[in-house]
């Protein structure tokens, strides 16, 4: 098993950072390094995709399906992805308060047959997308953290229960 980590300090409270990470459908709005798509029918199942660049400059895209393992507000979000028998990827964001900010540790553990056959494959591919995700998270949290949350618009229903009837 190979463990990779990337970390960053975000100038926002852990709750704000956790809220951004927990809103899986909004990832494309702020994160160009990886794609996480929830399954419409099973909320704990996701598809994780990324495009990594090999040292020779060649891009490698891959997608893995998996499931959310843990959502503990405000300190942890984790999932496990993979193809049974070939490769498993366990990923987690661990959030720790640091003054008024948050230390974010993004970790990935790679195991299975593929990492044993190609031991340098994932260690060379994952660090750049992981670091890119953390930089994008920092930008998102620090920009949205300084603005007040939007006030939801509530519309009152007409007292009579709907639009007036059509006249003939």
Automatic annotation (TrEMBL):
Keywords: Membrane, Transmembrane, Transmembrane helix
Organism in which the protein naturally occurs: Brevundimonas subvibrioides
Comp. bias regions, Basic residues: 154-168
TM spans (from-to): 77-95
Location of the region described as Disordered in the Swiss-Prot/TrEMBL record: 141-168
Keyword Cell wall biogenesis/degradation part of the UniProt annotation: no
Lineage summary: Bacteria, Pseudomonadati, Pseudomonadota, Alphaproteobacteria, Caulobacterales
Protein name: SRPBCC domain-containing protein
């Amino acid at each position: 098993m190979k463990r990779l980590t990337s970390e960053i300090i975000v100038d926002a409270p852990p709750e704000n950072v956790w809220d951004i990470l927990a809103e899986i459908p909004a990832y494309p709005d702020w994160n160009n390094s990886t794609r996480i798509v929830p399954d419409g029918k099973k909320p704990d199942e996701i598809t994780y995709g990324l495009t990594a660049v090999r040292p020779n400059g060649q891009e490698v895209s891959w997608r893995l399906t998996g499931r959310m393992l843990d959502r503990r507000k405000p300190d942890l979000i984790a999932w496990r992805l993979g193809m049974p028998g070939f490769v498993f990827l366990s990923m987690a964001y661990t959030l720790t308060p640091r003054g008024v900010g948050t230390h974010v540790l993004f970790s990935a553990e790679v195991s299975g047959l593929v990492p044993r056959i190609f031991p340098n494959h994932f260690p060379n591919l994952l660090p750049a997308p992981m670091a890119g995700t953390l930089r994008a998270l920092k930008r998102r949290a620090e920009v949205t953290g300084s603005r007040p949350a939007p006030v939801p618009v509530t519309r009152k229903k007409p007292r009579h229960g709907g639009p007036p009837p059509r006249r003939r």
